[in-house]
Amino acid sequence: MPSFQVSPLFGDHAVLCRGKEIRLFGTAPEGANVTAELKNAQGRLLGRDTAPAKEGRFLLYLPPQEAQEGCTLAFSCGGEQAICRDILIGEVYLAGGQSNMELELQNADEGPELIRTHDIPQVRYFNVPKFARPGPEADEANRSARWHAVAPGWAKDMSAVGYFFAVKLHETLQTPVGVIDCYWGGTSVTCWMDGEALSRTAEGQRYVKEYDEQWAGKSMEDYLREEGAFFSGLDEWAKKADALKKAHPEYSTKEINALIGPCPPWNPPVGEGSPFRPKGLFHTMLERVIPAALTGVLFYQGEEDTWRTKRYDILLASFIQRLRELFVDETLPFLNVQLPMWIDAAAEKDSLTWPPLRLAQQLVSRQVAHTDLAILLDQGEFDNIHPTDKRVVGERLCDCALRTVYGLPAPAAPAAVGKSARDGVLRILLDQPVTDRGQGEFCMEIAGEDGIFHPADTVVAGREIFLSCPQAPRPVMARYAWRDYVIVRLFGENGLPLRPFLLQ
Q1: Are 333 and 371 in contact (CB under 8 A)?
Q2: How far apart are CA 299 and CA 181, in angstroms?
Q3: Strand extents, DSSP E, 63-175
Q4: How many CA atoms lie within 13 Å of 217's alpha carbon, on the beta-carbon side?
Q5: Residues 374, 302: contact at Cβ < 8 Å?
Q6: Which of 227, 223, 225, 247 minimizes the C-alpha distance to 235?
Q7: pTM recorded for the entire structure
Q8: Using N-to-C axis directions, what is the helix angle for 253-260 and 220-247, rounded to 10°?
Q9: pLDDT (tens digit per residue) in 294-321
Q10: Distance CA 129, CA 182 (A)
Q11: Which stretches does DSSP call E strand in 197-292?
Q12: What confidence tens digit (pLDDT) does each residue in 28-81 have?
């Protein structure tokens, strides 16, 4: 029988979401009545609820509150009590995705110095423990999880993107900000979706079917053996590569590969113990924080799906819809990060798989209400899929929040809004003027009715771009930045890069 245990999400130093119904949960013996009381810093009762536990879990509801500090949560169940102190009420964001959201502050530019000196008690973070499969160790880690304030020596393990987002948001709104970190490197969006979400689309069903076919006939022992061999191979290669880089920092990736062989391809084994299986991390991580009240969701993911789907928009839209159902908030803001530029130095040619996913992200941001997209076309790094400048990412995400969540003015990246053709020239209309910085590539292409794209001669004139090409004398389509990696040169007057586009 489950014991009485309040979710650590509501423990000491927690941040509760302001302006929305507060939902508190945990475990308790079947039928046992659990009571929660929220009091402000002066001891005045702000809300109280009592309900019996069902199927070993309790769920309590408190009325919405204004932003404030110094609150106390008191829980009781039978003769047991739990008192949670130093509770803040403010903005609460779930930060999810894969490795670029996972990159910790200690590994980011500015990180070590900030960790040594920062002291922002109203900014706090909670790391959902990373476990791919359930078990006693995972349960103990989840019981021990805690909120931490940003203070000298702390926040090393906080998402760097989440950190820079939260700090800017706090400075702008002057309210407490909490970030719930819930991510895992190398994961598909389908890892964070439950069976219901995946069953709703043919694309989700395809991921599950492929997984089931690969897993069929294997045992957990088979999986664990394959997992060990795969990651041992990666670790061995990484050690050799690191030693070579240290001895010869001038060596390129191709030179290193020529000496020790190429890095083993990212193809982790399939199995019920894998963090990369559909539905897996939904149950072992994300479900741990459902249905807490959230201000919004921050999401930085997509790299893993660039080579696996041509309809990422379908998966992402389904994911957002399901999150809103599970977190009981039909307008829950979803703030996404568009993939930046990147290419492996060892690649023989550009795969052209990242541009369609970027456009899929834009499609969702246009078609799904209460979403926004941080544009990072100028932020990628050649041969480094994990750029360490996360301040720009976090602060552009914050601008998305200021616009979408709070209705405040914030800079937005220029976008193409229309096209027209005349005398062999395709005119692209923008929603704001752009300027040419003079370094990099225009990366504009046009095509006729045959759909074959050719590099275009480009003339920039404020809110208009004129494209022409002898190979496409009657152009009808245009696309911009259709590369995995390119250095772009067109920016708005606010310093943000022109959004990639495909106009058909």
Answers
A1: yes
A2: 10
A3: 68-77, 80-97, 120-127, 147-150
A4: 2
A5: no
A6: 227
A7: 0.96
A8: 120
A9: 999 999 999 999 999 999 999 999 999 9
A10: 8
A11: none
A12: 999 999 999 999 999 999 999 999 999 999 999 999 999 999 999 999 999 999
